[in-house]
Amino acid sequence: MSRGWLYVIRTRGEIDEEFFRSILPRQEWAGVWRYKNRQDRLNSLAGLLAAKVMLAPYCRPLPAIQRTAFGRPYVEAPGWSGDFSLAHSDGLAVCALLPAGRVGVDVERIRPIDPETARYCLADAEWRLWKEEQDSRLRQELFHRYWTLKEACIKLQGTGMGQIAPDSLRFELHDDGSAALHPPAPLWFRSWRIEDEYALSVCATGGLPGQPYVIMDMEELIGEFPELYPRSAKGK
């Protein structure tokens, strides 16, 4: 049973890929297997499993997760009018799900960014604030907060990054983790710094829940699966 609206999963470790290939619908597993790198497959699988756990209270039987031409995940099920979004970076996967409205999520590991990349991605006002920050670590965090907000906003719209120039989106950041898009739009934004390594941002219509994210290891997420499938998540 889902314990929240925003799952954050640490994806380091080993899992039985063959077991999940045997129980997941073919199109879902194909989406996981398209990644050649094993860590990327693990990240993709973690997001997929989190979405299914979080969808379970609203959709029974669980429908197959499909994707639009731009790669946006969705499900078709009687009575379901909500939305969910997936993202991953290195050893972390996230899933945001709301029972009504639309949502977009993005996560990125915080790492050094060169000025050329920052100039391309940031709006003029964001670029000035980024240049003025003297602390290199805070400057890296500032860029990734801006970037994940832009990605989350674009994911909510479902058009793909190639359709919107990132510097055309300008954000005003607030100390409480919220943010505002300029010019104003009826959207809600929130950012977090996860385990001092990642920037995570969410964008939603209709507001955001007050409760924080739920963070867990892959093994803990898999432990929620026996109630969703007749076989245990360990394949026994």
Could you explain how this protein is built, in words?
The longest helix has 22 residues. It contains 7 helices and 11 strands. The protein has 236 residues and is of the alpha+beta class. The C terminus is likely disordered. β7 and β8 form a beta hairpin. α2 runs antiparallel to α3.
Reconstruct the topology from this structure.
Elements lengths: L5 E5 L6 H7 L2 H8 L4 H18 L10 E2 L5 E2 L8 E7 L2 E7 L4 E7 L5 H7 L2 H9 L3 H22 L12 E4 L4 E5 L5 E7 L3 E7 L9 E4 H5 L14
Parallel strand pairs: 1-11
Antiparallel strand pairs: 1-5, 2-3, 4-5, 6-10, 7-8, 8-9, 9-10
Helix pairs in contact: 2-3
| Full CATH superfamily name of the largest domain | 4'-phosphopantetheinyl transferase domain
SS-based structural class?
A: alpha+beta
Beta fraction of the residues? Answer: 15-25%
The CATH C-level class name of the largest domain: Alpha Beta
Percent range for helical residues? 25-40%
Largest sheet: 5 strands, antiparallel
* Strand neighbour order, sheet with most strands: 6-10-9-8-7
Number of strands: 11
